[in-house]
Write a structure and sequence with these properties.
There is one protein chain. This protein is an alpha/beta fold. It is 61% helix and 8% strand. The chain folds into two domains: 1-82, Arc Repressor Mutant, subunit A, CATH 1.10.10.10; 121-281, Rossmann fold. The radius of gyration is 21 Å and the shape is globular. Strand 3, helix 12 (195-206) and strand 4 (210-215) form a beta-alpha-beta unit.
Length: 285
């Protein structure tokens, strides 16, 4: 999976923000708040405005997947000057049912594409390794993310791994207290700042549990504390919060993790899946 694509500069910056150095974050903040300036400024002007070397700006552009400042500038122009209305249009009260439905689908498609483009392949590979090496894997989430955690449990129980998930916050805290440094916890939160989940995280850290987060915000209390973060990219539209779109991306990240784990487990994975299918066949008429 690529770290950035030519028309996903802003998404790449948001997704990688947590891994930037302080100097890189200074450049990232400037771009995110003043994207129009990049289009109209030379690399020298941007460097002077930020009081950094031109080479620092150039390296930053390469860091997020572009050949240099000019390539990033061109991509950014296409990204913000052409807003892709056919993909992410606002929903209005005058839209009929068919139009609203199409816009929701297109919003989800854009969320998936943006998320795919900012996934760091090496970090994703490490997440798969952590899950494979764990004695036990537990999925945590609150609200809508709790349902994603439950979906992850529903998938990974087919893998033969020891997995679990709880919907209720007190049970989550209790369960977290029973994990060890040989286990892995996957914490799912759109905002990365849900108090109940951060409380669970503190319990996990106290037990030495390895932690992976799935979140939309690179700069959040959750990402500061976990070992590994996987990011979604979702935008808010009228009548529909960004958290709703991010759920689609969260589910897709879980699907990708599960599929990679099953491929890595080879025969053991196929055997576990077959055992599950045989057990479930008894429920069918």
């Amino acid at each position: 999976m690529n770290n950035a694509q030519n028309h996903h500069g802003l998404a790449s910056i948001r997704g990688n923000y947590g891994r930037f150095s302080d100097k890189e974050k200074k450049i990232a903040d400037y771009i995110l708040h003043n994207p129009q300036n990049i289009i109209h400024h030379t690399i020298n002007q941007v460097a002077d405005e930020l009081n950094v070397a031109e080479s620092t700006v150039f390296r930053f552009c390469k860091r997020i997947g572009f050949k240099g400042y000019q390539a990033f500038k061109i991509a950014l122009a296409a990204e913000i000057v052409t807003p892709m209305n056919d993909i992410h249009e606002k929903i209005s009260e005058g839209d009929n049912i068919g139009t609203v439905s199409e816009k929701v689908f297109r919003s989800n498609i854009k969320t998936l594409e943006d998320t795919m483009h900012i996934i760091d392949g090496k970090i994703f590979e490490r997440a798969v390794e952590m899950i494979l090496e764990a004695e036990r894997v537990e999925f945590f989430g609150n609200g809508g993310s709790a349902l994603v955690a439950l979906d992850a449990y529903h998938k990974f129980i087919r893998s033969g791994l020891q997995v679990s998930s709880n919907l209720e916050s007190h049970m989550q805290r209790m369960s977290a207290s029973q994990l060890t440094d040989k286990d892995v916890a996957v914490l799912i939160s759109h905002s990365g700042s849900t108090k109940d989940l951060l409380d669970v995280l503190q319990t996990l850290k106290g037990k030495g549990v390895k932690t992976i987060s799935i979140t939309n915000f690179a700069k959040s209390p959750l990402t500061k504390e976990v070992e590994l973060s996987l990011y979604t990219v979702a935008e808010e539209i009228d009548y529909r919060s960004e958290a709703m779109s991010s759920r689609i991306a969260q589910l897709s990240i879980i699907d990708a993790l599960y599929t990679n784990v099953m491929i890595a487990k080879k025969e053991k994975g196929r055997e576990a899946l077959q055992n599950m299918r045989e057990a479930m066949s008894l429920k069918r008429l």
